[in-house]
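#struct-help
A.M.: can someone run this one for me? Single chain, 394 residues.
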Amino acid sequence: MKKIWKVILITLSLVLLVAVTVFATLIATGYRPQSAQPLSVQKVSEIEAYLDRYFIDSYDEKALADAAASGLVAATGDRWSYYLTAEEYQAYEEAMNNAYVGIGVTITLSEEDGGMRIESVTPGSPAEDAGLQVGDIITHAEGQATAEIGMDATRAIVKGEEGTFVTLTISRSGERFELRVERRSIETPVAVGEMLENGIGYVRINNFDNRCAQETIAETDRLISEGAQALIFDLRFNGGGLKSELVKTLDYILPEGVVFQSKDYQGRESTDRSDARCLDLPIAVLVNAESYSAAEFFAAAIQEYAWGSVVGAKTTGKGNFQNAFRLSDGSLLNISTGKYFTPNGLSLSETGVTPDLEVELSEEDQARFYYGRLPHEEDAQLQAAIAEVLRKCS
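D.P.: on it. C-alpha cells below:
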C-alpha cells in the first residue's frame, strides 16, 4: 500500500513540476491569462467573438484589424504616434529614403480644370524628359478620369514598377494630347542651395531624413567656395526626420558644446555634442508653423548658441520622438518612446520656437512658396532674413 502511495505522490509531483514549467515558460514569453490581459485586448477579443458569432453580413478581417490598431494608437491622445497599414508602409519608406519610383511630379486636384494640376516637375525626371510642365492638367491616367478617381488613386496609377510606362492624357492651354512616361527611381533633393545677391548663400532643407547632412554640408561648402559671406537656412515646411542627420548638421555649423539632448521611456538620457570646427558667418534660419521636430531643434540650437537669427513664424512644438516597429503582417507602429531637449535642456512640446524676428506670410503666399512659385523678391520672410544677415555683415 505504501508503495502505491509513493508512486502516486511521485506522479503528482511530476505533473505539478511540468505544469509549473509550462506556466513559467508562457509567462516568460509574454502570455497572460484572459483576466490579466490589458482591457483593450479583452474588449477587442470580445467584439471579435460577437462579430464572428452574430454579425449577419461579411466583413474584411484585415480591415477590422487595421481599424482596431489605428484606433488603439489614436486613443492614446498622442498626435505624433500613428499606425500604418502594410500598403501605407511603402510610402513611409520612400519618404524616409527621399527616393521613390514614379515620374517626378507633384500634383493637386483642380476641379475647375477637370483633373490633377502639375504643381512642380523634378529636374532630370522622366516627367521633364517627356515634356510635362507646371500648370499641365492630367485629365486621365491609363484611361481613368483623374477628377473622378481622386488624388490617391491617381498617384497609385502613376507609380509602379521601375522601367514600366504610364499613359497620361494632358490638357494644356485648351489642347489635349497623350504622353507615355517612363517610371524610374527618383531621388528627391534634400537640400538645395543657390547664391543670392550681396554674397548671401541660401540653402533650403526639405527634411532631416536620409542624406540631409551630406547634402546640406555639400551645398553650404559649395556656396562658401563661391564667395558666400552669409548664410540663410530655410526650414519652412520641413517635417523633421532623423536625429542622427540633425546632429551631424548642427555639428558642422555650431562650435564645441552640447547640441542636442534626449530621454527615452526607460529614463535613459543621451547627450550629443559638436566639436570645435564651426561656421563663422552671419546666419539666419527660416521657420514657419509647418516646421516640425528636428527642424525646430535645429532652429532652437542656433538660437540658444546665439549663432544666428531665427526668422519667420512660430514653429509647431513637437518634443516627443518616435520609434517604428514593423508588425508581423508588414504594417507599422510608430509610437512616441521619448522626449527631445534643446542644448539648454528645454522641451519644445506645445511651445515650439518663437522666432527672433516674427514675420507672417499670407495663406496665398505660403501656398505659392510650398509649390515653388513665390519669387524671392515677394517672399516677405526671406527678405527679412536677408536684411538680418546683411545687418550683421555691416
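A.M.: thanks! The chain is about 35% helix and 25% strand.
D.P.: also worth noting: Residues 387 and 393 are 10 Å apart (CA to CA).
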